[in-house]
Write a structure and sequence with these properties.
single chain, two-stranded antiparallel sheet
Length: 279
């Protein structure tokens, strides 16, 4: 399945799931107040996870009857599925049972030192563990490379969460990061593997912008983690290290300044952030 077909398949599948799962998303357990104080279904990003599963199942069935790819999963597609489920589960836990005002690494660590384990810290630690498993699976190279690649994936997932403060923002940021990555990856196995995830994210852009749902940490986690995984699987060691430095710097910056304030002060960023949103 090539990249374009993967994007389209992800988008079409997630929109089908959005219609069929509308009642589930409206349950009280998945309802939160957004920045306008409107009650909106959260954890909509779980539909991205389900869409990728459906696409891969469909790809396997078609392959079994001689259409398209072979029915077996490639290593890249297996890792993308694991990343989507692992990071999606951690985000879903935070979306459903998370409480408290702690934000950022300092807030969660501070709560832990006071004797309380927050779902946010669980998500951070669990995300690091999932990232280690992901980068160790293709073949353990060196301890240094393992740490760098795992950090890249975990911090990319966390950056997605940090950006998810306004409708459509994390999807737009994901697309900005995805386009050059997709050009580098081309139609290789890694590019094909991450395409359904990004297609599903794009499929939820309009509902997200119109405040019909929130991706929640579930969706932001998955988008960030899969993009980080794409970098790890598809780029050379020097490029991966450079990306890690950028992602780490943005994570640190989020502890010191508000991304929303920065976006509001920079006209091009503000225009992109506001594009498609309700006034």
């Amino acid at each position: 399945m090539n990249v374009v077909v993967g994007l389209v398949a992800g988008a079409v599948t997630v929109l089908f799931l959005l219609v069929t799962a509308a009642g589930v998303l409206r349950t009280p357990a998945l309802s939160r107040r957004n920045y306008r104080d409107r009650i909106v279904p959260t954890a909509g990003g779980v539909l991205i996870v389900l869409a990728v599963l459906v696409v891969e199942a469909g790809r396997a069935v078609l392959g079994a009857v001689g259409i398209g790819d072979e029915p077996g999963l490639t290593t890249a597609r297996s890792l993308v599925l694991f990343a989507a489920f692992g990071f999606g589960l951690l985000g879903l836990i935070d979306d459903v049972v998370g409480e408290g005002d702690e934000r950022g690494f300092r807030g969660h660590v501070g709560a832990f030192l006071r004797g309380r384990l927050t779902t946010g810290l669980l998500k951070l630690v669990g995300g690091g563990a999932v990232a280690v498993v992901l980068v160790a699976t293709p073949g353990f190279a060196t301890g240094r490379r393992l740490v760098i690649d795992a950090l890249l994936i975990a911090l990319a997932a966390n950056l997605g969460n940090l950006l998810d403060r306004a409708p459509g923002r994390v999807i737009k940021a994901g697309v900005v990061a995805y386009v050059p990555l997709a050009l580098v990856l081309g139609t290789g196995a890694v590019g094909v593997a991450i395409a359904p995830v990004m297609g599903a994210a794009l499929g939820l852009l309009a509902p997200d912008l119109r405040e019909r749902l929130m991706l929640g940490d579930t969706g932001a986690n998955v988008i960030g983690a899969v993009l980080g995984l794409g970098v790890v699987l598809g780029l050379g060691s020097t490029s991966r290290t450079i990306v890690l430095v950028v992602v780490a710097a943005l994570n640190v910056a989020a502890e010191l300044v508000s991304f929303s304030d920065v976006i509001e002060r920079v006209p091009p960023l503000r225009a992109l952030d506001q594009l498609g949103r309700e006034a």
